Amino acid sequence: MTPIVLVPGLLCSAEIFAAQATALWPYGPVTIASTLEGSTMAEMAAAILAAAPPRFALAGISMGGYICLEIMRQAPERVVKLALLDTSARPDTPEQTAVRRERLARAKAGEFEAVVVEATGATLHPDRQDDPELRAVNLRMALAVGLQGMVRQQEAIIARIDSRPSLGAITVPTLVLVGDSDPLTPPERAREIAEGIAGAELVVVPYCGHASTIEQPEAVNAALIRWITA
């Protein structure tokens, strides 16, 4: 059985993978990595590698996907399979960075919870932006990460490198999954990744925004089970 390491996204705790950890458990020991160490993508990846099994299947969502791509640069020989969920291989655009800086400033000024609520609405499928359960999950996770965690993670995201040039070096079986209505890392970003990795499978989840693992857990679980058992 292959150990499985799941990497959460920005302001996400282990709860982002609650349904997936349960679904994948029969296929190998599941670890949900901590993203609470390191101030750069390289440092976060190194910390996760230090705690990970010698060889493992690797999956990450959003910022977790950025970290997974960095892990593939640092230690490709340790990863046997890769899954990239709702993520992008591109660096931040100036516009994205400006939004992050504005939200960071507001969060530091005492508006942390308000910023989280606002950002959560912007990530979900348009029909589910007011879903009380999804909003509650996102707020719980953000509070678990905390303001300082948010600052560190956002700075790492802003400074991340362009991963597109290194996609061709990935040779392990790879799943690329995205919500059909993901407003942050839309399907064309997923398609770009899938086209850059030889043999990668692209799955577009219907009626789904950026937080696929909690918006459409059954569809994500089915894709991940196919991936881990292939």
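That was protein one. Protein two is written in the same sequence-then-structure order:
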Amino acid sequence: MGLVDGAVLAAIEGAAHALPLSATGHGAAARLWLRAADGDAWLAAAQALAAAAALAIAARGRLRGALGEGARALARPSLFRASPPARDAALLALGAAASLLVAAALRPYVAPWERAPLAVGLGLLATGAALASAAIAPRRPGHGERGEADAPSFAGMLAAGAAHGVAALPGGSRVGAALVVLLWLGVRPARAVELALALSVPALLASGLAEARAIHGPAPGAVALSALAAFAGAAAGAAALRALAERRRTAALALWVVPLGLAMVAYAQALPGPS
């Protein structure tokens, strides 16, 4: 894969890590479009770590408070009830643990289908349907100015984390899965975006560190360019998602994801069968 194609692919996947569009789905579609083979493990590691950094920066306000108060609450457990940032720390730890465990359990079944067009297409269709459902997500009365909560319950965050892990399936969107669950739980959109982005940071870090175990890698320049493109794509995607959530237009992304899913299914059906 050339440097330009690699940078384009990294930017697309970086944006899809932040926007609920499916990084695996867009990565598979972009490889078909660019006629590119799978990238080197070090390039994948650089992209994942760079995207994690961009999402951490996008959610830095919430993460900074959660980390600081969470550390204090370890010595004073009562803070987990009294301090909203400490409660955030507990919620994020619970959700991230659920996500990582579910994704790890699914990994042996996911790996053989990661690049299969039919699996990717069906996953994109499921992602699009979930996004569309956000348009009719109910608002729970009695929470805040618009009848919405500022944080889910621990059971709700466990569900969001589990959905985040399940969305490691081909064509799934981890940010999108967590975001849709949180919206259906009545969490206000801006807050749901922060939590969904923050949940994705540990998953991307784990993915990047796992890929980085490869002994040999491409030229440092290719790794740096790939990381920069992924960072820029993820940062732009996070900003776009925040803007869409504030305008309650997240469901409109289904208008892109569903046609892409249909195109991938059609492509899979057009492939010649085994002789």
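Residues 3-268 form one domain. Keep this in mind for the problem set.
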